[in-house]
Amino acid sequence: MTQDQPPRTALVTGSAGFIGFHVAQRLLAQGWRVVGLDALSDYYSVSLKQSRHALLEPDMGFTPVIGRVEDPGRLLDIFATHKPDLVVHLAAQAGVRHSIEQPRDYVEANLIGTFELLEAARTHPPAHMLLASTSSVYGANTQMPYGERDKADSQMSFYAATKKAIEAMAHSYAHLYGLPVTMFRFFTVYGPWGRPDMAPFLFTDAIMNGRPINVFNHGDLRRDFTYIDDLIDGIFGLIDTVPGKNAVSEQDSLSPVAPFRVVNIGNSQPIQLMDFIRAVERACGREAEKIMHPMQAGDVHATWADTGLLTELTGYAPKVDLQTGVQRFVEWYRAYYRF
Ligand SMILES: NC(=O)c1ccc[n+]([C@@H]2O[C@H](COP(=O)([O-])OP(=O)(O)OC[C@H]3O[C@@H](n4cnc5c(N)ncnc54)[C@H](O)[C@@H]3O)[C@@H](O)[C@H]2O)c1
């Protein structure tokens, strides 16, 4: 944004979450006004979420709203008051395992919450809405890397099923009401302020506290680990890439009937789980005691993003290699938890 432009307003849902915090931080640094909606749910440490919001709050451009996306009228009020130009919708109940234990959380936060957002957006249509989906929607697909135009109809967890449903819901609103929508499919994001329920945090936390780590499918898993700064670069490239009428190439996932596009944001370099564990061990300076387990229900064997479309649209090129990214995460962990 240039200096003579008035500040534009963005609504970031999930602003106290891992990715939402980083998105809000960069938007504020660029001079946006940010309305940050988050329920501070207790799925993982509420104090970590409060610490993230506390870093955003001193910025005069930041307006925190504590509440649930699915609360009736909540988003209508926000749209009436703030009329956001941009929406980045990251609030969700995430996690594959939890969706087996508490599927209703996913119906409420993901399905009803996104429905309320889409309905509210009709009242004051933003210039662009960007909504989080996941690599998990590729489910049982075995052809790698995963491309946005591949059929993705075999979800393996209820979490993934709700995200696939959100994609379809958003497509219908983009078509019916002309709302420009970009759906992100994120691939295993890690880095400072990362999520305590995900492997990078779980491994680091266990190693630092002298506990064994749990290794699923006996270590035979591959993930396309994406460093947070690379992911944020991808998101910011897409903010200015509003889906219109014309596809950029044959690879484009642009809908034939709506301003709607799905875009992978990954690293495009799948890492073997045991190599990831070695990187964490190196960064922590200690070897982990490993307890081997079979595959977890709902999990997939490998993820690998084809990021060709993102590169074509935005010039995206991930910069942070695995060891550097893991090192930065462990440094943050040590500073935050005073190790
Ligand atoms: N981190 C990843 O690797 C990854 C991968 C694929 C997709 N995603 C998706 O990206 C988005 C952000 O993920 P994240 O890693 O930052 O997760 P996160 O859990 O750290 O952030 C989500 C935030 O949403 C909030 N929230 C949850 N339910 C809510 C509700 N009903 N109303 C309002 N706020 C609510 C939570 O309190 C949390 O702060 C999610 O939609 C997630 O499904 C993340």
Structural notes for this entry:
By secondary structure, the protein is α/β, with parallel strands linked by helices. It has a single domain, classed as Rossmann fold (3-Layer(aba) Sandwich). Helix content is 39%, strand content 16%. It has helices spanning 18-29, 46-56, 74-82, 98-101, 103-123, 158-177, 199-208, 228-239, 273-284, 308-314, 322-336, and strands spanning 9-13, 33-38, 62-66, 86-89, 128-134, 181-186, 189-190, 213-215, 222-223, 226-227, 260-265, 271-272, 290-292. Strands 3-2-1-4-5-6-11 form a seven-stranded parallel β-sheet, sandwiched between helices. A two-stranded parallel sheet has the order 7-10. Strand 1, helix 1 (18-29) and strand 2 (33-38) form a beta-alpha-beta unit. The longest helix is centred in the middle third of the chain and has 21 residues, at 103-123. The model has no long low-confidence stretch (mean pLDDT 97). Nicotinamide-adenine-dinucleotide (NAD) binds at residues 14, 16-20, 37-41, 49, 68-70, 90-94, 109, 113, 132, 134, 186, 188-189, 195.
Write the SSE topology.
Elements: E1 9-13, H1 18-29, E2 33-38, H2 46-56, E3 62-66, H3 74-82, E4 86-89, H4 98-101, H5 103-123, E5 128-134, H6 158-177, E6 181-186, E7 189-190, H7 199-208, E8 213-215, E9 222-223, E10 226-227, H8 228-239, E11 260-265, E12 271-272, H9 273-284, E13 290-292, H10 308-314, H11 322-336
Parallel strand pairs: 1-2, 1-4, 2-3, 4-5, 5-6, 6-11, 7-10, 8-13
Antiparallel strand pairs: 9-12
Helix pairs in contact: 1-2, 1-8, 3-5, 5-6, 7-9, 7-11, 9-11
This protein binds nicotinamide-adenine-dinucleotide.
Nicotinamide-adenine-dinucleotide (NAD) is lined by residues 14, 16-20, 37-41, 49, 68-70, 90-94, 109, 113, 132, 134, 186, 188-189, 195.
